[in-house]
Amino acid sequence: MAQEKPTFDYHEESHGEKLARKSKESPFMVIGLASLAAAVGYGVYSFKNRGPMSTSVFLMQFRVIAQGATVGALTAGITYSMYSNYFNKTKAVLNTEH
């Protein structure tokens, strides 16, 4: 029995194709990008309306908010992957045995 060699498609991906592929593989990446865009939009809006606060203090506070959003997105992604790999695994095994 001759084993067939796998065929690979080596074409250059555009940015849109890569984003679509990555979003299917990891849906929390899209949530992370959306939270990044929201944080930047909020930061720009808040910077214009910061009042007498100095720029350095504002940027330090904004950095903490951005890091919190990143850690929150990572935590949600890890929690989802742990649930799907460990806790939801018994349902998948039971469905394949029938």
TrEMBL record:
Subcellular location: Mitochondrion membrane
Record flagged with keyword rRNA-binding: no
Pfam families in the record: HIG_1_N
GO annotation terms (biological process): mitochondrial respirasome assembly
Matching PROSITE patterns: HIG1
Gene Ontology cellular component terms for the protein in this record: mitochondrial membrane
Keyword Metal-binding: no
Alphabetical UniProt keywords: Membrane, Mitochondrion, Transmembrane, Transmembrane helix
Database matches in InterPro entries: Hypoxia_induced_domain, RCF1
Name of the protein described by the UniProt record: Uncharacterized protein
Organism annotation: Danaus plexippus plexippus
